[in-house]
Amino acid sequence: MAESVYRVTEVIGVSSESWEAAARNAVETAAKTVRDLRIAEVLRQDVTVENGRITGYRVRLGISFKFQSGE
Questions:
Q1: How many helices (H) and strands (E) does the chain have?
Q2: Does a structural domain hold residue 40?
Q3: I need a labelling partner for 11 at 20 to 30 A (CA). Which of 27, 63, 66, 71 fits?
Q4: Which of 38, 56, 39 is nearest to 47 (CA)?
Q5: Count of domains in the chain?
């Protein structure tokens, strides 16, 4: 089995619906420019509040993708 190296970077997804939708937005957007996206790990969740009501959901994800060596 060939050895691989993966890079991990953080992205933040935002949604007015839910944390799940925020995570989906982040992964789908990152997947458009990152090749070989493998794993997304939820690092942090928070909400924005206005006038005592939740108005937005944010999810910080650590995404990992296969490092391309250039060979």
A1: 1, 3
A2: yes
A3: 71
A4: 56
A5: 1
Q: In this predicted model, what pLDDT tens digit does every residue of 16-36 receive, in sequence order? A: 999 999 999 999 999 999 888
| Range of the structural domain that residue 57 is part of | 6-66
CB contact at 8 A, 11 and 1: no
Let me know if residue 71 belongs to a domain: no
Identify the residue whose tokens are 């391309």.
68
User: Which residues touch 58 (CB under 8 Å, ≥6 apart)?
Assistant: 12, 13, 14, 22, 45, 46, 47, 48
**Token reading at 42:** 């939820």
CA distance 13 to 29: 9
